[in-house]
C-alpha cells in the first residue's frame, strides 16, 4: 500500500466534518485535505497533495507564523481570522484553528466559513421559532374555536326570532364572519389534526405534481422550469404533506409574480440537488435533499423578511399569512427546514430534508 493510501486511511474520519480541514507537514505542504475543502477549493485531493497551503491564504504570514510555532509545540492551538482564496471561486472569510499533532511534526488546520456559522445560527433560530409558533397557534386556535361556535349559534337563534329583514341581514353578517373565522382556525389546526402518513417519496414526482397544479391555475405568462438531479434517491416521508408544502411556496411565488405574468415573462424554477454534511438543529446529516423554488419576482418586502414564517404575516393584500408557516411545519415534520434568500428580481426558497 502506498504512503498516499496510508495517509488517506489515517485521516479518513476528517471527511465526515463539514468544516474545511487540512493536514500539513512541517514544511506547510498538504498531506491530506478533506472532502469539504476539496469542494470549496474546486481541486481534488491529488491536486492539493504536496502544495503549499499558504498559497490559498490571503495573509500567508499568519499561517507561516503558526506553523513555525507548531514545530516546537509552543501552543496547544492557535486561532485567527483570515481569507481563503479558492482558485476559481470568490474569496471566503474564515476562522482558522491550527493545532499541532503529536506525530511527525504534522499540523491540523480547521477553517470555519464565517457565513456558514451565521447560517447555522439562523437555522437554529428558525427551528426554535417554528416550535414556539406551533404551540402558540394551537393554543390560540383552541381559545378562538370554542366561543366562535357560541357566537354563531346565538346569531342563528336570534335570526329565528327576528321579523325584520334588515335586522336579519345583520345576523347573516355575524354568521358569515363566524364561518370565515372558523375556516381560518381549521387551517391553523390542520397540521396537528392529520397523522403523518409515511411512505416512499420521490421528490421529482412531488415537484411534477405541484408544477401541473400551478400551470393549470396560470396557463399563460408563467414558465415553470425544471432543473432536477435525477440521482436523488427516494426517502421516507408524507407525500401529501410535502406536495402541500411545495405547493404553498410555489403558489405564493406565482401570486407575487402577477405583474410579470401579465406581461408574459414570469419564471419559477424547481431545482433539486444533494447537499453533503448539512447541519440542521445542531444535528449533522451526511446527505440532504436540497429543493430550491426560485422566482424572478420583486422579492420579499424588507419589513417582513425576518418574519415571513410567522403565522398571519403577509406582504400581499388579501393574503392569509398561513401558506409559509404551514409549509415550514410540514417540512419540519420531516426533520427539515425552509430558508429564504431574497432580493429584487430573485427569491430563493430552499427546502432541506435529510436523506438516508
Walk me through the structure.
The chain has helices at 3-10, 35-41, 45-48, 60-71, 114-161, 165-193, 203-217, 239-256, 258-263, 323-332; strands at residues 20-24, 30-33, 78-84, 92-100, 107-113, 199-201, 222-227, 235-237, 266-280, 283-295, 337-343, 346-354. It has 356 residues and is an alpha+beta fold. The protein has three domains: 3-117, 2-Layer Sandwich (Beta-Lactamase); 118-193; 199-354, Histidine kinase-like ATPase, C-terminal domain (Heat Shock Protein 90, 2-Layer Sandwich). It has a five-stranded antiparallel sheet with strand order 2-1-5-4-3. Residues 139-356 form the Histidine kinase domain.
Within the largest sheet, what's the order of strands? Answer: 2-1-5-4-3
Q: How many distinct beta strands?
A: 12
Q: Based on CA inertia axes, which overall geometry fits?
A: elongated
Share of helical residues: 40-55%
Rounded to an integer in angstroms, the radius of gyration calculated over CA atoms is 27 Å
Strand coverage percent: 15-25%
State the domain count: 3
CATH topology term of the largest domain: Heat Shock Protein 90
Low-confidence stretches: none
Compute the separation of the termini in Å: 32 Å
Short description:
Its EC number is 2.7.13.3. By secondary structure, the chain is α+β, with helices and mostly antiparallel strands.
Summary tags:
Beta-Lactamase, 12 strands, 356 residues, elongated, five-stranded antiparallel beta sheet, alpha+beta, 3 domains, single chain, five-stranded mixed beta sheet, Heat Shock Protein 90
Amino acid at each position: 500500500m502506498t504512503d498516499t493510501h496510508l495517509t488517506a486511511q489515517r485521516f479518513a474520519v476528517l471527511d465526515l466534518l463539514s468544516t474545511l480541514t487540512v493536514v500539513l507537514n512541517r514544511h506547510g505542504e498538504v498531506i491530506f485535505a478533506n472532502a469539504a475543502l476539496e469542494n470549496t477549493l474546486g481541486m481534488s485531493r491529488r491536486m492539493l497533495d504536496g502544495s503549499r497551503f499558504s498559497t490559498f491564504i490571503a495573509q500567508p504570514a499568519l499561517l507561516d507564523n503558526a506553523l513555525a510555532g507548531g514545530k516546537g509545540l509552543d501552543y496547544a492551538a492557535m486561532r485567527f481570522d483570515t481569507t481563503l482564496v479558492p482558485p476559481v471561486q470568490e474569496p471566503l472569510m474564515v476562522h482558522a484553528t491550527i493545532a499541532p499533532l503529536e506525530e511527525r511534526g504534522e499540523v491540523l488546520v480547521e477553517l470555519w466559513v464565517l457565513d456558514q456559522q451565521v447560517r447555522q445560527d439562523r437555522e437554529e433560530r428558525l427551528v426554535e421559532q417554528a416550535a414556539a409558533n406551533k404551540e402558540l397557534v394551537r393554543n390560540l386556535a383552541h381559545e378562538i374555536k370554542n366561543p366562535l361556535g357560541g357566537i354563531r349559534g346565538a346569531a342563528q337563534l336570534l335570526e329565528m326570532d327576528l321579523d325584520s329583514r334588515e335586522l336579519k341581514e345583520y345576523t347573516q353578517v355575524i354568521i358569515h364572519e363566524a364561518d370565515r373565522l372558523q375556516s381560518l382556525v381549521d387551517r391553523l389546526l390542520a397540521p396537528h389534526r392529520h397523522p403523518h402518513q409515511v411512505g416512499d417519496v420521490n421528490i421529482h414526482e412531488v415537484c411534477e405534481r405541484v408544477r401541473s397544479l400551478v400551470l393549470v391555475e396560470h396557463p399563460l405568462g408563467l414558465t415553470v422550469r425544471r432543473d432536477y438531479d435525477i440521482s436523488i434517491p427516494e426517502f421516507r416521508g408524507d407525500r401529501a404533506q410535502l406536495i402541500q408544502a411545495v405547493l404553498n411556496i410555489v403558489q405564493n411565488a406565482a401570486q407575487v409574480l402577477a405583474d410579470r405574468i401579465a406581461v408574459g415573462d414570469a419564471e419559477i424554477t424547481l431545482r433539486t440537488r444533494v447537499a453533503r454534511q448539512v447541519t440542521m438543529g445542531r444535528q449533522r446529516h451526511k446527505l440532504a435533499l436540497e429543493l430550491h423554488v426560485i422566482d424572478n419576482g420583486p422579492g420579499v418586502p424588507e419589513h417582513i423578511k425576518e418574519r415571513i414564517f410567522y403565522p398571519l404575516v403577509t406582504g400581499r393584500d388579501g393574503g392569509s399569512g398561513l401558506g409559509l408557516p404551514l409549509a415550514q411545519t410540514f417540512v419540519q415534520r420531516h426533520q427539515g427546514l425552509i430558508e429564504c434568500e431574497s432580493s429584487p428580481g430573485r427569491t430563493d426558497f430552499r427546502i432541506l430534508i435529510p436523506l438516508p
